[in-house]
Amino acid sequence: MPPHRTAERIVQSALVQQNVGSRPMLSRVAEAMYWMSRYVERAEHIARIVLINSNMLIDLGELAPAMQEKQWLGVLRILRLDQRPEVQEYLLSGKVPEENRCLLGYNFASFMASESSKSIIACVTKARENARSIRENISAEMWETLNTLYWNLTGDDVKFRFEEYPQEMFLSVIMGSMLFQGVADQTLPHAQSWQFTQLAKYLERADMICRIVDTNFDILQDSGDVSAIETPLRNIQWMGMLRSCCSIEAYQRKHLGNLDPQTLASFLLLDAESPRNVRYSVNAARTAISGIATSVHPQQVDAAERILGRLNAHLEYAEPKQMVGTALGFFLKKIQEDLALASIAIENAYFLH
């Protein structure tokens, strides 16, 4: 065989191997991987928000019913359930065991645990269904972790355990989610499948943190001046917001004893080091979609990567003055709109085939 033919064959073989290595995942597998991760992250946030809000109302002691209702309706707003009439009717029905004096809180916890289409159990069930459809693409440890969490929430004794100690259910979901994420990081090859789990996790996290910040600031700014609210109440509210984002220790290490609203908002939205804030999450999502796009279509500019790249730059160069008053609302709205556009772009590029 002539030397030039041999060289041509070698080049062709190398190109074939390169194409095989960068072959995109099936859209069905990519979508299931994405939503499995997103639903697990969502279940964790719901569990933490409900648990923290319950504990916060206990810390506040005898709080006026109107304030209790405002707190729980704030949680509904975070989860985008506040406008549903069936939700309002259920939560305000007053059908609560006599021994539970936190009437609205008990109703709400029960509702979000199992009786809502957006409940914790619904999220874990959807995550498990997606995982089961791609068993061959995830590790055995990932499946076992998620399956164990599912049966822990749906066993025959779950109702009794919830009535005895509701907090245990929420804590098991939080720790189950973290365990699942750790197992995925340690057992799944850090290729496209893992990148889709990271992309989904951080998009969900960034969106949820924006909602938490927006709702908590609104609750305290109804009077038009946060400083007008009694200091202990205000501080408990701010600490509850940090705990809802799993950021209380990280914040205290950086801003010991400082619960200034602008500093709080800046930390949760703009800090580059804490994995439980918006800027870190957006940058991690951008890194994940960049890796996916490089594997799938390296010669093209990915729409979602462009959106997340612009948003990441917007957060990197944001000014603290954007974290106060009405400016904060516009700032959060811009982030959420970009996250929604990125989610649509991901769906169009990788799932609708």
Briefly, what is this?
This protein has 353 residues and is mostly helical.
Overview of this protein structure:
The protein folds into two domains: 26-187, no CATH class; 189-353, no CATH class. Helix content is 75%, strand content 0%. The relative contact order is 0.11. It has helices at 3-21, 27-60, 65-78, 85-91, 103-115, 120-133, 140-154, 158-164, 166-187, 192-220, 231-244, 248-254, 261-270, 278-296, 303-316, 325-351.
Keywords:
single chain; 353 residues; mainly alpha; 2 domains; 16 helices; disordered N terminus
Largest sheet: none
Class computed from helices, strands and strand pairing = mainly alpha
Overall pLDDT, averaged?
Answer: 82
Q: Tell me, briefly, the overall form.
A: globular
Low-pLDDT segments: 1-22, 95-104
Q: What is the H/E string?
A: HHHHHHHHHHHHHHHH
Write the layout of secondary structure elements.
Elements: H1 3-21, H2 27-60, H3 65-78, H4 85-91, H5 103-115, H6 120-133, H7 140-154, H8 158-164, H9 166-187, H10 192-220, H11 231-244, H12 248-254, H13 261-270, H14 278-296, H15 303-316, H16 325-351
Helix pairs in contact: 2-3, 2-5, 2-6, 2-9, 2-10, 2-11, 3-10, 6-7, 7-9, 8-9, 10-11, 10-13, 10-14, 10-16, 14-15, 15-16
